[in-house]
Write a structure and sequence with these properties.
heterodimer; A: alpha+beta; Arc Repressor Mutant, subunit A; Glutaredoxin; four-stranded mixed sheet; 6 helices; 40% helix; B: alpha/beta; Rossmann fold; Ubiquitin-like (UB roll); 5 domains; five-stranded mixed sheet; 25 helices; globular
């Protein structure tokens, strides 16, 4: 338990009557602090909700949106959903980003700036092929627009 | 705003808001920008900013508002100009750089920029613009009928007033003040509404089960965990008309005797979640949610629960486990949630579209709803059209319309003069249908009989360039990766099926594999715990049934006629058709193409890596897929 940030987790007070039901919301909040769920964060959530650490970790590991390892400052999620796949874009896009950043899906660049993840449908089928950088969605990607985007992120 | 305490005050508010909106339309110009996820991603925010700054620069007065998705996602960003006393005119694919021109010519000059305009919405007493199509003229809209999506793209989704002006909360008022809960259930049963999540169970009957079930409290749950690849119907409704979902859920709460409800929404839909929360806040403020709604003794409250990325949570028992803060794993049914759901209490789970249809059914009556669609599938169906189709986007059509009408009339057919091959309905757990099934009416029973399913509304069209083995393998990869792993048939069966399909796609399949597919599929269908496992083999079974010859060609001839599976075909240039334009030569990165200008070119199969760049770039269809030369070719080359 990190003593530096007491009560760092504040599950919304108005939430559900039962503590367990707050778990997902609490994990989101905990994740926000470091960008991923540090073991200490899991401990804090467990203590707060009166659950075992194992129980919390088991639940967190079930859902793809909880990160049990750190990610880059710019987390790039490339969609391999159906439409992105059908427009013959997904594979090219994934390969191109991987080549440019010299990392594979699930990895982070050594400088911690970029991480890459191949994900299922981002629900932007009309914009296929699509990718997301943190919470920002980009559509109709080509190798050219990827280069421009990475360049922009490199400089910011 | 003080809370509305009775139906009359809702009614007078509605009249007042309508008048205010009419006045605004009469006196002030309004510019509406499509701000659904599709619009925003296409650059709607920049366009809206450009409009505001242009108006400021010229010191012009206009209301600029964001609306939800109107369905033409392929044409976003969409901008509508509504000048006083003039029809609403829609401009498509608007970029920030044309904004000054639109403002100058249309807004100031009053002249429609016909070159950029898409269509107009006419209204009574307003003269239509000359030489501009109306929405009803557009093939995309002609065969549509919008009930679940009636407000999407039409009203500002963040304004409860605009929803109320569009008959919002009148259904709720009618139910609360004029109908007994049993009467509401009877009306829903009589309407014939079947659950729009995919299974098609009668909504009214489900509500009745829940009402009759013993135990309190009871819960109303909205399944907004839309996860099918190629599906975004629910997202658009949540973003474009969140109050309709709230109103439907509140009516359901009244009918089954619940005071609390949850909307379980996919975390990938942040805009939908934000708008839902805002809408709930507004409903509270207006006394349309919370204690003593509209002055009656009925109280109801809703919370939004965010998912965390697990496809299986779309299954109702898994969804309930996830709301409880547990791993989203399904459990055996019965007991059904209607009897024992959230915290083991009676719970009613319906899809977003089922709830958004509910207020209209209550308001206009079961007979009105029954009059639309077919006898056993009443009302309308919402589809997200994607894949190899011209008008990708969101549509709502009466049940009973044929697949052919949807694909060719509404969808505009297949782009680039390609041949239709198959349409997949029901997403990764549905099935595909071939050309011969295109006259199948779109309703729950006909689609199931034909070999596909209604599903929740994904409709994916593929053309001649799609390999059906690979297509089935794609869905199988998705479904087996999303298996939660709790039950063996789904966890292991999916993997085994995937191995078989991969083998076939890679050219090392055997004829016995086709029987193996049938065997594993049957086991999965019969023994899996939930619909995910039971339906995972669906796409494979359907494609094997309708496109068996493609499977056999992969196995026996090592040939992929669609030119997808690497190493199982080669490209050839038609020496008669090729005019020697040199386009293919230019795009080839491995120097496999040679030929003199204005003379037919050739492909050297030794160098060719089958990347398909030449095939895609040839506008004349002069490049063909054929059997590999190194193999003995007995069968006729593929028909064109």
């Amino acid at each position: 338990m990190s003593m530096g940030e007491p009560n760092a987790v504040h599950p919304p007070a108005i939430e559900d009557p039962r503590k367990r039901a707050m778990l997902l919301a609490a994990l989101y909040i905990a994740q926000e602090q470091n960008g991923w769920l540090k073991p200490e964060a899991i401990q804090r959530v467990a203590k707060r909700l009166e659950l075992s650490e194992g129980e919390v970790k088991s639940t967190a590991s079930f859902y793809t949106m909880f990160r049990l390892a750190p990610r880059g400052r710019y987390h790039i999620q490339v969609c391999e959903g159906l439409s992105c796949y059908l427009v013959d874009g997904a594979e090219t896009i994934i390969a191109h980003v991987a080549r440019r950043l010299k990392i594979r899906s699930g990895e982070t660049t050594p400088d911690g700036r970029f991480s890459l993840e191949v994900v299922q449908c981002l629900a932007a089928c009309d914009l296929a092929p699509a990718l997301k950088v943190n919470d920002e969605l980009y559509g109709h990607m080509t190798t050219g627009t990827i280069d421009a985007l990475l360049e922009k992120l490199h400089q910011s | 705003m003080s809370a509305l305490t009775n139906t009359e005050s809702l009614e007078s508010l509605r009249v007042a808001v309508q008048e205010r909106l009419d006045d605004r339309r009469a006196g002030q110009a309004t510019i509406l920008v499509g701000m659904g996820t599709c619009g925003i991603a296409a650059g709607a925010s920049e366009v809206a900013a450009a409009i505001r700054s242009e108006l400021d620069k010229r010191k012009l007065e206009a209301q600029v508002i964001g609306v939800g998705c109107i369905g033409m996602c392929a044409r976003e960003p969409l901008v509508d100009f509504q000048l006083p006393g003039r029809p609403r005119v829609t401009y498509a694919n608007v970029k920030a750089d044309v904004v000054p021109r639109l403002i100058e010519e249309h807004f100031v000059g009053g002249q429609v920029v016909t070159k950029l305009a898409l269509a107009q919405m006419t209204a009574d007493g307003i003269a239509p613009e000359q030489e501009l199509a109306t929405y009803q003229d557009l093939p995309f809209y002609k065969k549509q009928l919008r009930i679940a999506m009636r407000n999407c793209g039409m009203i500002n989704p963040e304004s409860i007033d605009e929803y109320i002006a569009a008959d919002g909360y009148r259904g709720l008022a009618k139910a609360l003040t004029g109908m007994e809960p049993d009467g509401v259930i009877e009306e829903m049963k009589d309407s014939g509404l079947r659950g729009r999540g995919g299974a098609g169970f009668m909504t009214g009957v489900k509500w009745e089960f829940c009402r009759r079930a013993r135990g309190t409290p009871k819960y109303v749950i909205c399944n907004a965990d839309e996860g099918d690849p190629g599906a975004f119907m629910d997202r658009s409704i949540l973003e474009g008309d969140p109050h309709a979902v709230l109103e439907g859920m509140t009516i359901a709460g009244y009918a089954i005797g619940a005071q609390e409800g949850y909307i379980y929404c996919r975390a990938e839909y942040p805009l939908a979640i934000e708008r839902l929360k805002k809408a709930i806040g507004q409903a509270h403020e207006y006394g349309l949610m919370g204690k003593n709604i509209l002055g009656t003794d009925f109280s109801f409250d809703l919370r939004v629960k965010e998912g965390a990325g697990a496809f299986v949570c779309g299954e109702e028992t898994a969804l309930i486990a996830s709301i409880e803060g547990k791993r989203g794993e399904p459990r055996p049914r019965p007991p059904f949630p209607a009897v024992s759901g959230l915290w083991n209490k009676p719970s009613n789970v319906n899809n977003v579209k089922s709830y958004s249809l509910t207020p209209q059914i209550i308001l206009h009556g079961a007979d009105w709803f029954k009059g639309i669609g077919t006898e056993t599938s009443t009302g309308t169906a919402v589809f997200a059209l994607t894949g190899k189709i011209k008008n990708t986007g969101l549509i709502e059509v009466p049940m009973g319309i044929t697949l052919r009408e949807i694909i060719y009339d509404v969808g505009g057919g297949i782009p680039k003069k390609k041949q239709f091959k198959a349409v997949q309905t029901g997403g990764p757990l549905g099935g595909c249908l071939p050309e011969s099934a295109l006259d199948t009416p779109v309703d729950f029973d006909s689609l199931t009989r034909a070999g596909a399913t209604m599903g929740s509304g994904g409709m994916i069209v593929v053309d001649q360039d799609t390999c059906m083995v690979e297509f089935a393998r794609y869905f199988l990869t998705f479904a087996s990766a999303e298996s939660c792993g709790k039950c063996v048939p789904c966890r292991i069966g999916g993997q085994r099926l995937l191995e078989v399909l991969t083998r076939i796609a890679e050219g090392s399949g055997r004829m016995e594999d086709l029987d193996e597919i049938g065997y594993i599929s049957t086991q999965m269908q019969q023994a899996s715990l939930c619909a995910l496992g039971q339906l995972t083999p669906g796409p494979v079974m359907a494609s094997l049934r309708f496109f068996r010859e493609e499977y056999e060609a992969h196995i026996n001839e090592h040939f992929c006629q669609a030119g997808v599976c690497k190493g199982m075909f080669q490209y050839e240039i038609d020496q008669v058709k090729c005019p020697g334009c040199g386009l293919c030569l230019k795009v080839c990165t491995v120097d496999a193409i040679s030929g003199e200008k204005k003379k037919p070119h050739q492909i050297n199969p030794v160098n060719c890596i089958q990347c398909g760049a030449c095939y895609d770039v040839c506008n004349l269809g002069a490049i063909h897929v054929r059997h590999k030369e190194s193999l003995p070719v007995e069968a006729e080359p593929v028909a064109e």
